[in-house]
Amino acid sequence: MKKTITILSILSLSLGLNAQKQKTPQDSIKVFYNELFSVLEKSYLNRKSVDWKTVESETKDKLKSYDNFEKSLTEIKPFFDKINANHCLIFYNNKKYSGTGKVITKDDFSEQWKKKFDTKPAFEAKMIDEKYGYILMPNMLFFDLSPENINKIAQPLYDKIAEIKSNNKPEGWILDLRFNTGGNSTPMLLALYDLLGDNVVWGTLDGNKKMISKIKLNQGKYLDGSKKPAFINPKGELMDKTKVAVITGLFTGSSGEVTALAFKGRPNTIFIGEKTYGATTANTQYTLPFGSTMAITIGYDSDRNGNYYEQIIPNVFVSKKDNFDNLLLDGNFVEAVKFF
């Protein structure tokens, strides 16, 4: 999922809950899926290639066998697979429902990567060997997209990076996106404001790959067309010409890929590691009945220049040479130092 686009409210949570209480399970199932079908037919990126009459009919036939609304959500997976909605997601009662997606096994990763992944990596910003700034940017998933909440998340991350900037003189910065599976890219990009500067950082393309929106950073503000933009309070000089090495991996996906895309076209930047997951389609957040939320694919992600990438391919390929116990021995880190 991604990013920060206005939530379009279909039914309020209170009205949805009241309706659910008053209806039978089958009534609730019909209300939910009718709304889901309607939204997808109007807004889904690949809607014109779907035989909606057939797919809806087949799905409704399967739904007749359910006597519980939540259990009926197991039909989301085959339904999304039929319409190739491999980046759409449904969230309900803290559970995620999606299509099959790409299959990546643990055999595709090093033991060091798996060991670090099992710790559920959090944000890190630190100096390595007193020479290099290191930032590990993890995935971030949340549903309160208000500017105040985004600032609450992004500001402490930005402040850690700014503190390193002001107290040290890094020869270069390493942005590690190996564990960034997505969520919401806005706080990620705001935290990285000093490295990105006052620029267009990414965009959205329509079904014909023509740019329909540009996302800018300017004086700490995230400008995406919202009347009240998300923001951080910046400190000190920008570092938008400083050397940056972006490390990507097979699990770098969705908003993690948007964060990587923001550095495409930036001077003094290199991409190191493995090709990304390939979820470079643009999602918006939509509220569905009964307190559920959908991330619906409505376009393609692009870099600042309007270029689309099905996957982000690194300039320097490095595979299974991770070392999080000692980053100086990490194969990706070694290549970054060469670049610096």
Provide a descriptive summary of the structure in words.
The structure is a single chain. The protein has two domains: 8-98, no CATH class; 106-280 and 299-339, 2-enoyl-CoA Hydratase, Chain A, domain 1 (Alpha-Beta Complex). The chain is built from eleven helices and 15 strands. The protein has helices at 13-22, 25-43, 52-63, 69-72, 76-82, 111-117, 147-167, 185-191, 193-196, 255-261, 331-339; strands at 8-9, 89-92, 95-98, 124-128, 132-136, 172-176, 200-205, 211-218, 221-223, 230-231, 244-248, 269-273, 281-288, 292-302, 316-317. Strands 1, 2, 3, 7, 8, 9, 10, 13 and 14 form a nine-stranded mixed β-sheet that branches. The chain has a six-stranded mixed β-sheet with strand order 4-5-6-11-12-15, sandwiched between helices. Helix 2 runs antiparallel to helix 3 (52-63) and helix 7 packs parallel to helix 8 (185-191). It is globular. Residues 105-319 form the Tail specific protease domain. InterPro entries: ClpP/crotonase-like_dom_sf, Tail-specific_protease. One of its GO terms (molecular function) is serine-type peptidase activity. Pfam families: Peptidase_S41 (PF03572).
